[in-house]
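Give me the fold.
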Amino acid sequence: MAELREFRLPDVGEGLTEADIVAWHVKPGDRVEDGQIIVEIETAKAVVELPSPWDGTVARLLAEEGQTVDVGVPIIAVEVAGAGADQPAVAASGQEKADYAERAAVPAPPPADSPGTGTPGRQPVLVGYGVKASPTTRRPRKAPPAVAAAATRPEVAEVPTAPEVPVQPTQMPPGPLEVPSGPVRAQTKPALAKPPVRKLAKDLGISLAELAGSGPDGSITRDDVQRAAATGSPARSAYPGVGNGARTAPSAAVPSPGGEERIPIRGVRKHMAAAMVSSAFTAPHVTEFLQVDVTETMAALRRVRELPEFAELRPSPLLFVARALLIAVARHPLINSSWDAAAEEIVVKHYVNLGIAVAADRGLIVPNIKNAGALPLPELARRLQALAETGRAGKATPADLAGGTITITNVGVFGVDAGTPILTPGETAILAFGQVKDTPWVVDGQLAVRKACTLSLSFDHRIVDGEAGSAVLRDVGSMLADPVRMLAWG
């Protein structure tokens, strides 16, 4: 006989609590094999492809494209052949299918090696994702609203009532209170909405009681009110999974009657925004600027492009900037470190995982080249090109994005001269490389037109003082002004 199994959203990254369903690669009725890619999800860092852990037939998709699903919530049901595989498969009953949403609210059981289970060892996991043998510390996972509410309320039937209205003492009639006879009509629960949303609904003539909220716990949002005003009818809930561990977020920008546009903050963009705010208000940033004559570097780049080792590559000035920064890190190791507040230590890293900021469709990401300081120039060029291509295509993996030690952001490709870049969380410095352009320059006492750019170095002033930061920036500038220095210093 066939056994119905539910595949729960796994934790594909340390501390992951939720992910967005980007695209399903299967549909109900499809045959799937163990290891076959069935769905793409977007975590806080990257888009990840999840394979099926079983051979079988897809019975039902339990999450829709665009939903944000908590880790541990079932996302797909698969009929898997059991011990009686020679017998006809038994389809899931209607009641079983109806119970999927209810069961989705139950969080996944903890792994056997988690604290408090009393069962040491490792558990089988999804293909491609391992489990550490040692205990790990991660953020607590969010309990779905339905589970949290069920844990606190008594097991009795409840009739929602209207909000209580305080009665002034002068309004109390004399004598005993009379209770009206006959059946009592249950009042509907008041709509959940913040004061600004209530005011907007009042201004647009929308009744909140007729709207289905798409916010947390079914609360009504501005988008719900604006959709109702635009369509002239009550808005259906855009979050039908609220209460069962899943939320459907709008997949595109939502226009409003007032000429505004609201874009949902999700996935990579949501994570990066939080990380940038944390970095800006945690590490004291200092940014220094240096304008450099890079005429000789541009000449060297033209010669490098003609070498057979670079025949299949498209090296750019970023290659020389990266090499110069790697050499500067070797000369000033403190710039490649991190601040450990818990241990009250500065962690100096004697390896360089060079991050390159990439503007992808889903937001800014910073994949990094592992141990970049040990790579020869052709291999560094190859890694830079591959990193940029996979990053822009949204194919960077969590491993590509983890473990960076210092970052370069190439703002010059956007026609920008300089900026004050924010540190990547956990790093001490980030170098911004501005556009290379013709600039009046004094050479040997004579005015000439030279190729020049501006370098901007932001660093954590808790770790690096002004003198050390200036030394790093000066070294990078000196090597770009005279590439021969890279040979002498490297």
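The mean pLDDT is 76.
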